[in-house]
């Protein structure tokens, strides 16, 4: 399944979480002072579920 992290495509398996997408994109280490948001600006946790084509952003 493909999701987008900061507009870059990341392939993950179905059932994986936001943390897995960040790990695969190499951005997990940036989470300390930053947070993760969905395309609508809602904050999501690292254990949040992902859907095909979902866009998440680290800010």
Description:
- The chain has one domain: Ubiquitin-like (UB roll) (Roll), CATH 3.10.20.90.
- Strands 2-1-5-3-4 form a 5-stranded mixed sheet, with helices on one face.
- The model has no long low-confidence stretch (mean pLDDT 94).
- A hairpin with a 2-residue loop joins β1 and β2.
- It has one helix spanning 18-25; strands at 2-5, 8-11, 36-38, 43-44, 55-58.
- The N and C termini lie far apart (23 Å).
- By secondary structure, it is α+β, with helices and mostly antiparallel strands.
- Helices cover 14% and strands 29% of the residues.
- The protein contains 1 helix and 5 strands.
- The radius of gyration is 10 Å and the shape is globular.
- This is Sulfur carrier protein ThiS.
- It comes from Candidatus Sulfobium mesophilum.
What tags apply to this protein structure?
59 residues; alpha+beta; Ubiquitin-like (UB roll); five-stranded mixed beta sheet
Strands, helices and their partners?
Layout: E1 2-5, E2 8-11, H1 18-25, E3 36-38, E4 43-44, E5 55-58
Parallel strand pairs: 1-5
Antiparallel strand pairs: 1-2, 3-4, 3-5
Protein name: Sulfur carrier protein ThiS
What percentage of residues falls in helices of 4 or more residues? 10-25%
Q: Tell me the number of structural domains.
A: 1
User: What is the radius of gyration computed over CA atoms, rounded to a whole number of angstroms?
Assistant: 10 Å
Give the overall shape, derived from the CA principal axes: globular
Poorly predicted parts:
none
CATH topology: Ubiquitin-like (UB roll)
**Helical segment tally?**
1
- Please give the CATH class: Alpha Beta
- Mean pLDDT comes to 94
What pattern of helices and strands is seen along the backbone?
Answer: EEHEEE
Structural class, by secondary structure, is alpha+beta
CATH architecture: Roll
Name given to the CATH homologous superfamily: Phosphatidylinositol 3-kinase Catalytic Subunit, Chain A, domain 1
Q: Quick one: biggest sheet?
A: 5 strands, mixed
Kindly estimate the percentage of residues that lie in beta strands according to DSSP. 25-35%
Strand order within the widest beta sheet: 2-1-5-3-4
Q: Span between N and C termini?
A: 23 Å
DSSP strand tally: 5
Protein name: Sulfur carrier protein ThiS
Organism: Candidatus Sulfobium mesophilum
